[in-house]
Design goal:
This protein is α/β, with parallel strands linked by helices and 304 residues long. The protein is built from 13 helices and nine strands. InterPro entries: Methyltransf_12, SAM-dependent_MTases_sf, TPR-like_helical_dom_sf.
Length: 304
């Protein structure tokens, strides 16, 4: 009640009294950190999150990320699986109402429009198999369905999978962590999408290193990122989402061996009334098999 009334200092003090009685209450340390942060007492918030980190073996409260976002510890390069899974399991029932209705979320529409434009330009009439990474409640899948023969969805959250299963959009759904799921695949998808998914993954290179081999030669990938203009490749925002550098993202795509077809900045949504600028990417895996076959043929002619 104190926190709801805006008296976060008093809420933090009361939570401190509770934690004296229940010192191993992880959720209590999480709340205490949040109240201290909102009250402007960052040192006390960091102390609370350090207690939380020691208690939360599975990382569902995201203590490591909260410390990293305030320069009190390393963020790591990969997805904080426990935190992201717990976040979206809790968020699933109100996900669409909050994201689309309140935050002006437009990423699926914008990515879908870019994919349509590239399909027209490249003469692609239809995709055989598409993989929607971080499919959530199916906002991206709804837009892909009409141009895909077989549509798969992957998400880390069982609650999100349950929500989208009710819609009957996907031909198959899998609960899995993104990189692990990609590493288990062969090159069988000619389209992959990731709408506001890689903002929880940190460094791009491990994701792209898993994604490219799972994509057919000539296949497309379309994804969004939150953006920043600094020299850093990536940094963790107080929102606990990663922002990627514009030039660093271009370089990561080139290093991964992808041909960049579209690379645009746009307002993705609003957060606390402020616009969130991001990057929209459509890239293609080169048709390396044909090139390799041609090189081999030319080498054979020379030898003959």
């Amino acid at each position: 009640m104190l926190a709801e009334q805006g008296d976060h200092a008093a809420a933090a003090e009361l939570m401190g009294q509770a934690l004296e009685l229940a010192p191993d209450w992880a959720a209590g340390w999480d709340l205490a950190g949040s109240y201290h942060e909102k009250a402007g007492n960052l040192s006390a918030a960091i102390a609370a999150w350090r207690h939380l980190e020691a208690l939360d073996d599975d990382g569902v409260f995201g203590a490591r990320l909260k410390l990293a976002a305030h320069d009190a510890g390393p963020a790591g390069e990969g997805t904080a699986v426990g935190y992201v899974e717990a976040l979206f399991d809790q968020y699933a029932p109100q996900f669409e109402a909050a994201l689309v209705g309140k935050l002006g979320y437009r990423v699926p529409d914008m990515l879908d429009a870019l994919v349509d434009e590239e399909m027209a330009r490249l003469g692609i009439a239809h995709f055989q198999r598409a993989l929607d990474l971080g499919c959530g409640t199916g906002l991206m899948g709804e837009r892909l369905r009409k141009k895909v023969g077989y549509l798969e969805g992957i998400d880390i959250s069982a609650a999100m999978i349950a929500e989208t299963a009710r819609k009957g959009i996907y031909d198959s759904l899998q609960k899995a962590e993104l990189v692990a799921a990609l590493n288990a695949r062969r090159a069988d998808a000619d389209l992959m999408t990731a709408a506001d998914v890689l903002i929880y993954c940190g460094a791009l290179q491990p994701v792209l290193a898993a994604l490219v081999p799972a994509l057919k030669a000539g296949g497309l990938v379309a994804f969004s990122l939150e953006a920043h203009d600094g020299a850093e490749e990536v940094f963790l925002r107080p929102s606990l989402r990663y922002a990627h550098g514009v030039e660093a993202t271009r370089n990561a795509l080139v290093v991964a061996g992808l041909e960049v077809l579209r690379f645009e900045t746009a307002v993705l949504r609003f957060d606390r009334g402020a616009p969130i600028t991001g990057i929209l990417v459509v890239a293609r895996k080169p048709v390396v098999e044909l090139t390799a076959a041609n090189d081999e043929a030319e080498g054979g002619d020379v030898a003959a």
